[in-house]
Design a protein that fits this description.
292 residues, alpha+beta, nine-stranded mixed sheet, 7 helices, binds acetyl coenzyme *A
Length: 292
């Protein structure tokens, strides 16, 4: 577990605290000197957990650093602690989420621009505590806090462990293929199940944020269906559903998973999204594509 040279208890008056770009626990109250001390220590905590997460996922650079959080406009990190452990307490996990403007394929293979998509960006529980329910505990805290539902979340290049996590806890298996690094589950575009997607509106309602476009994405890629293996495993075979003709144009752009086959090095999606360097404005994986 992540132990520190300082006592973490003042930073963690609650088991789970959240941190945004000010690098302070959401519970923080103090004067300027205490503020500087807290941000310095919190930066150390975030950098350490981000590094552990990267190592755990086999990434060559962390997705999460204090510096990146400081520069972000709309990201939140949730940190899970055990202050009763040892003299200084320990930090056991990290969950980073944010909202992003994404170009996404819907289930019919049409390209949509979805603004402020809830996104799971980095998730880590210390190896010594994995598979003990802590990940679910932290994730549920975040869902309640953000007013999100799992099916409305996009996931930035999920690991196999995280795909298993979504399957086990939320029964989510069938994905909607995308041309970027994000994984969506079937139901993402369903309006009736849409409350709790960040701002309490469905994507279609969110400030007119979803547009069905005539983007060349759809013409280039058609409907790339990535969920076949997962769908087979789930035992669902579309039953009486007629196959969507667009699915015959299948282009296997990327399997769902962080370690999948290489994605095309040049795609219209990348060209379209290349200009959006601003944090939270991305059609690709802003968190991970820059660092791998
Ligand atoms: C967008 C991204 O962040 S992708 C990267 C996700 N993070 C990682 O892969 C880092 C390493 N893994 C972890 O940190 C954790 O396993 C997490 C965050 C994915 C889940 O946290 P946990 O505390 O393990 O989750 P929790 O105990 O609530 O649920 C366990 C379930 O998660 C899945 N899971 C967790 N670890 C594994 C594993 N080693 N192998 C396969 N499935 C796993 C399984 O479905 C497991 O259920 P099971 O034990 O009955 O098979």
């Amino acid at each position: 577990m992540a132990e520190f040279r300082f006592d973490i208890k003042p930073l963690f008056p609650l088991e789970i605290i959240k941190v945004t770009s000010n690098l302070l626990p959401h519970t923080f109250r103090g004067d300027r000197r205490q503020c500087l001390d807290a941000t310095s220590k919190m930066s150390e905590v975030i950098d350490r957990l981000g590094q552990l997460s990267a190592v755990s996922q086999g990434l060559n650079k962390p997705v999460t650093t204090a510096q990146r959080l400081r520069m972000s406009e709309n990201q939140t990190i949730y940190l899970l602690s055990d202050t009763s452990y040892g003299a200084n307490g320990v930090v056991m996990g990290l969950l980073k989420v944010g909202t992003k403007d994404l170009y996404l394929f819907d289930e019919q293979g049409r390209t949509r621009k979805v603004e402020q998509t809830p996104s799971i960006l980095d998730f880590y529980i210390h190896e010594s505590r994995q598979r003990g329910g802590l990940g679910k505990h932290l994730f549920e805290y975040m869902l309640t806090d953000q007013n999100w539902t799992p099916v409305k979340c996009s996931i930035d290049r999920p690991s196999e462990k995280l795909l298993n996590f979504f399957k086990k806890h939320y029964g989510l298996v069938r994905t909607i293929p995308q041309a970027n690094n994000f994984v969506l589950y079937e139901g993402f575009f369903d309006e009736e199940a849409s409350m709790g997607n960040g701002n309490g509106k469905s994507p279609a309602q969110s400030n007119g944020g979803m547009h069905i476009t005539s983007s060349p994405n759809t013409q280039l890629f058609g409907a790339a269906y990535l969920g076949d293996e997962a769908n087979k495993r789930s035992g669902r075979n579309n039953g009486s559903q007629q196959p969507n003709p667009l699915l015959h144009q299948i282009t296997q752009i990327s399997p769902s998973g962080r370690y999948g086959a290489p994605r095309p090095t040049c795609s219209m999606a990348e060209i379209i999204h290349a200009g959006s360097g601003k944090s939270g404005k991305s059609g690709g994986s802003a968190e991970s594509s820059r660092i791998k």
